Amino acid sequence: MRIKTIALVGAGVLAMAGGLVPVGAQTPPSTTTIQQDFDAATALDAKPDRKASLAAWEKLETRTKAGSRSRGIVLVRKAPTLFALNRADESVKAARAGLALLPADDASLAEDRTRAFLILGQVATDTLDYAGAVTALQQAEASAISTADKLGAMLSLVTAQIFIDPTAAATTLARSDALIGTVKLEKSVAARFARERTLLKLNTGDIAGARASALQAIRLLGGLETDKVDIMDASARSDAAIAYLLSGNADEARRYMAYTGAGRMVKGSFDPAAEMRSPDCGGDAGLKPQDVAVVEFNIASDGTIDQAAPIYAAGGGQVALEFARAVKGWSWPAEKVQAIPAFYRYHVRVEMRCSTAFERPSIDDGLDDVLEQWLSSKGVTVAPAPTGSQAAALAGQRAELASATAQSPNGLRTLAAIYRLTNNPTVAREERAALAARALSIAVANDAPPSARLTFDLPGRVDAVTDIWRPGVFERTLTPMVSEPVYANDPQARAAIRLMMVDGAVARTRKSEKNDTAIVTLRQVADDKALKPNDPLRVGALIRIASIEERNGEIDAARATFASSGLTANQCAIMDAPPKMVSQPGSEAFPMEAMRWGFEGWTQVQFDIGADGNVINQRALLSYPPFIFSEAGTKFFTKAKYAKTYRPDGGLGCGATTTRIKFLLPDSARRGS
């Protein structure tokens, strides 16, 4: 998958020479010297036995002096091994601790610093903290000495910048072009740079440029007729397919998609996941029904998502990242995954849109409103949120913070400046946590209301935890806040905390789990007499309860809960007996173009059913392969007819119903493909 590519270009980073300066053993006398242990650990790094490598570095760690340069080198060398063992949070801690011990003016340690920053960038990328990845990878590039290391850092850097700061991504590619001109680059590496240029152009609207660079990448990899197709080939061809589709050439799009292998398994089939849900529209990400994204992911052997990364989004980089976060919660039964050839598990792309079934209000928006109103009551005006590029606004926001700090480090103008800066998604998680902690102290000193404090306290605590993405960590981080008097005694604050706790927990819970704890927590919000019946937080709690009850098959409960929210309860998901389909298209619904190219796949379509039984507002939520069956899936329902439903106002008979359609070829056609 394209987000795990550092080692190929930056091979020099992972195979460095060098030695330790002995500083005296911290353990009983050993039969080997520290240098011998270092050489042995370095040799083990080149072998596949990561556990042995880790044991060697940990042994060496005990023999180096705490706080020494040598300890820093060992920690930095240990970090990649921890990462390879899927202990990413420990890897980050080791890399950061090592960096703190490496003298910045010691040129002989440049490669070690590069190694540490690359690991930090990789973990941030894998956890979809692209702003943090940019910060770390910029430092990796700056510390790199060799051309290979610089290009490796640049390649990883541009991957994140595309969805955080496209202008900076273009600048990084220009720097890489200048460097590439000084060396002879392997075609496979040149193809990877061409692919990044393709994705940048796709996501900035330069479709013609994207098509050209996609074709360049394919040529560098050997063209369409290569004997052996790997994941890089498939990715480059899929990029070209998206570019052709967006330029209106559907035939060429299908041709290039056919050459990826997606939807063309000779044996078996790539079925939808057991845990495959589109994210809800609305929420703190502000997803809109018209937003669309393509996300690429790997499926691990146990059926969980190993990695997910955005490829394309109509709606902006933050939209793309939000869809990728949703994918990380999907899973397949392990026995089904093992029947899928590895090639098809490691290059999966889906087209995605958000669901309107359980749209929810944003928690953050409510807290922000409280803070802004309080600051206004104190005579402080908060700068309006930027309407254009967040990255372009960053310099001005930093300048305002510097000016406000010079005037009064702990004043409310400084608080307002920090607030605007922490809301900028291009600020790295680590910096955001530090800023939030600073802002919280100012808010407390100025007796800000509890909900206003939460604007900084909630994200500050979450961003300060390295492994917040692990199951259970999010809830454990926020749970103590509910009992803290300042929040426990404020209905808005305690409700917001509980909703955030549940959102973090549910995002990491499988469908097979009942989420009973989440419902108990949400009921505390819904039944809080201190909240008005129409309070957005109470309504948000009821919507979440209804969604969980519907997932658990408790339709009566879901309907009653949704109705108590005061919203229109005509969603198909919570009806006893949704209208029955009385007519539907036949085999002619299978798109001929897909038949011709031998595609199979599926699409999940969401639509409303009018009281007259006609389908309206149909839209593809999920499609595999991307864009191949989306149109056919939505057209299918233009010809479908449902039973009429009595509605006094003649309105919807059933809203936001979701149905999945599988497009399967006849066995004869499959064998022929």
Mean pLDDT: 83
State the helicity in percent bands. 40-55%
Largest sheet: 6 strands, antiparallel
Q: Any idea what the shape is?
A: globular
Decide which structural class fits the backbone: alpha+beta
Strands side by side in the biggest sheet: 3-2-4-8-7-10
- Can you tell me the residue ranges where pLDDT is under 50 for at least 5 consecutive residues? 1-27, 668-673
- Estimated share of beta-strand residues: 5-15%
| Number of helices, where a helix is a run of at least 4 consecutive DSSP H or I residues | 30
- End-to-end gap: 25 Å
Rg is: 27 Å
Task: Tell me the total number of β-strands.
Answer: 10
In a few lines, what is going on in this structure?
The chain is α+β, with helices and mostly antiparallel strands. The protein has helices spanning 6-9, 34-45, 50-62, 69-84, 88-101, 110-126, 130-143, 147-164, 166-180, 187-203, 207-220, 231-246, 250-258, 317-327, 334-337, 342-345, 363-377, 390-407, 412-422, 429-445, 450-463, 473-478, 485-488, 491-506, 516-526, 536-551, 555-564, 592-597, 630-638, 667-672, and strands at 280-282, 292-299, 305-314, 348-352, 355-360, 581-583, 601-610, 615-624, 641-642, 652-663. It is built from 30 helices and ten strands.
